[in-house]
């Protein structure tokens, strides 16, 4: 399984991807089988696991349980080095390029190398851009950085392009968990137009209409988390088509 190559091939074939983000601190293991049954029946293509703050060993326990219940690729979406587990398929090696906190640009990455050496995880270098959404997010609190203003699209677009020129393989526009406002269609369109790498969009997407708009604007992979935590019936709107 080569997850980055699969994403690149999907982009070439104009297939849209959907990742369900599961937070180890919010998902109860006893609720997981029912949740995964709904997820497996949906159009989801990837499972991301992680959170801004997660209890020690919680990520590994959850990843092991998830893998027993699905064939979908499981990707770590880490908030910290402690969330690395060898049981996942891959890790998004996130660099918070919207901020200037050296820990989240390179420091945490250096600290993670010893752990990563002991795994066979596929490591995917990913630019992470936090976009203002109308409220303070957990990412802001943890990283001590401010989001980029949605009123200044050029700064967001230029930051994304700079990340690509640095050699990052994926670009992630993030409004943040529980965002009031998702990333705007204008920002998605203009960012996609400047990039030649896949574009991920997440945060604040709670309806099928918002999901479709993100795809139509150029998102190659959309991440949804809070919407499923708040309303598992949302899976009903995203069921696979049966013939």
Automatic annotation (TrEMBL):
Residues that coordinate or bind sn-glycerol 1-phosphate: 172-178, 203-204, 225-226
Keywords for this protein: Lipid biosynthesis, Lipid metabolism, Magnesium, Metal-binding, Phospholipid biosynthesis, Phospholipid metabolism, Transferase
Residues that hold Mg(2+) according to the record: 23, 52
Nucleotide-binding is among the record's keywords: no
Recorded catalytic activity of this chain's protein: sn-glycerol 1-phosphate + (2E,6E,10E)-geranylgeranyl diphosphate = sn-3-O-(geranylgeranyl)glycerol 1-phosphate + diphosphate
Claim: Transferase is one of the keywords in the record: yes
Coiled-coil ranges per UniProt: none
Cofactor(s) the protein needs: Mg(2+)
First-level EC class: transferase
EC number: 2.5.1.41
Entry's family note: Belongs to the GGGP/HepGP synthase family. Group II subfamily.
Protein's job: Prenyltransferase that catalyzes the transfer of the geranylgeranyl moiety of geranylgeranyl diphosphate (GGPP) to the C3 hydroxyl of sn-glycerol-1-phosphate (G1P).
Protein name, per record: Geranylgeranylglyceryl phosphate synthase
Organism, as annotated: Lacinutrix iliipiscaria
Taxonomic lineage from the root: Bacteria, Pseudomonadati, Bacteroidota, Flavobacteriia, Flavobacteriales
């Amino acid at each position: 399984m080569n997850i980055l190559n699969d994403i690149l091939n999907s982009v070439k074939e104009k297939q849209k991807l959907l990742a369900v983000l599961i937070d180890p601190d919010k998902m109860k293991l006893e609720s997981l089988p029912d949740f995964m049954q709904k997820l497996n029946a949906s159009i989801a293509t990837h499972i991301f696991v992680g959170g801004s703050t997660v209890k020690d060993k919680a990520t590994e326990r959850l990843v092991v349980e998830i893998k027993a219940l699905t064939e979908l690729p499981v990707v770590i979406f880490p908030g910290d080095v402690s969330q690395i587990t060898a049981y996942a398929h891959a890790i998004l090696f996130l660099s918070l390029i919207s901020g200037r906190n050296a820990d989240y640009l390179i420091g945490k990455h250096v600290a993670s190398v010893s752990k990563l050496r002991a795994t066979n995880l596929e490591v995917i270098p990913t630019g992470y851009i936090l976009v203002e959404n109308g409220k303070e997010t957990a990412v802001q609190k943890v990283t001590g950085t401010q989001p980029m203003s949605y009123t200044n699209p050029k700064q967001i677009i230029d930051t994304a392009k700079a990340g690509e020129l640095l050699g990052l393989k994926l670009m992630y526009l993030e409004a943040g968990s529980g965002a009031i406002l998702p990333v705007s269609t204008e920002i998605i369109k203009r960012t996609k137009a400047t990039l030649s790498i896949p574009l991920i969009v997440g945060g604040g997407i709670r309806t099928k209409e918002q999901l479709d708009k993100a795809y139509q604007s150029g998102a190659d992979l959309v991440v949804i988390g809070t919407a499923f935590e708040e309303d598992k019936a949302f899976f009903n709107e995203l069921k696979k088509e049966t013939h």
